[in-house]
Amino acid sequence: MKKIAICIDFDGTCVSHEFPNVGENIGAVEVLRELINAGHHLILFTMRSNSSKRKYLDEALDWFNDNEIELYGIQSNPTQHAWTSSPKAYGQIYIDDAALGCPLKHDENISLRPFVDWDKVREILKFNEVL
């Protein structure tokens, strides 16, 4: 299996939608760890940023650290600067609740907005031999 870079959104993807706060667990941790254990690289690709009022990006990074999920890159792929000046993070797969075709789950006990269905994402990753 080829090792790939996977860009991961945060709100609605790793956690439920609760911005500006960090949302609830929606099942991402186990699958993200499986991806890392398979040798893949995770790149956080989020709209969150730090401001003088609040460190929104740092709060997301704390979530990854607290869940012992190693990030290869934050907002960019560390290797892409050798071959492009594009600001878009390069990855072979993008997992984002706003992406067309990304499987979503609706559970009003967790969030009023839909969020990524990680059980279905795992199935897709296995079908495509990523996991």
Structural class: alpha/beta
Beta-strand proportion: 5-15%
Strands of the biggest beta sheet: in what spatial order?
3-2-1-4
The outline comes out as globular
What radius of gyration results from the CA coordinates?
Answer: 14 Å
CATH topology: Rossmann fold
Can you tell me the residue ranges where pLDDT is under 50 for at least 5 consecutive residues?
none
| Head-to-tail CA distance between termini | 8 Å
How many domain modules?
A: 1
H/E element sequence: EHEHEEEEH
Roughly how much helix do the residues carry, as a percent range?
Answer: 10-25%
Q: How many helical stretches?
A: 3
Number of strands: 6
Instruction: Give the biggest beta sheet.
Output: 4 strands, parallel
CATH architect. name: 3-Layer(aba) Sandwich
CATH domain class name: Alpha Beta
| Chain-averaged pLDDT | 96
CATH superfamily: HAD superfamily/HAD-like
Describe this structure in words.
The structure is a single chain. By secondary structure, the protein is an alpha/beta fold. The protein has one domain: Rossmann fold, CATH 3.40.50. The chain is 24% helix and 13% strand. A 4-stranded parallel sheet has the order 3-2-1-4, covered by helices on one side. Helix 2 links the parallel strand 2 and strand 3. The longest helix has 11 residues. The mean pLDDT is 96.
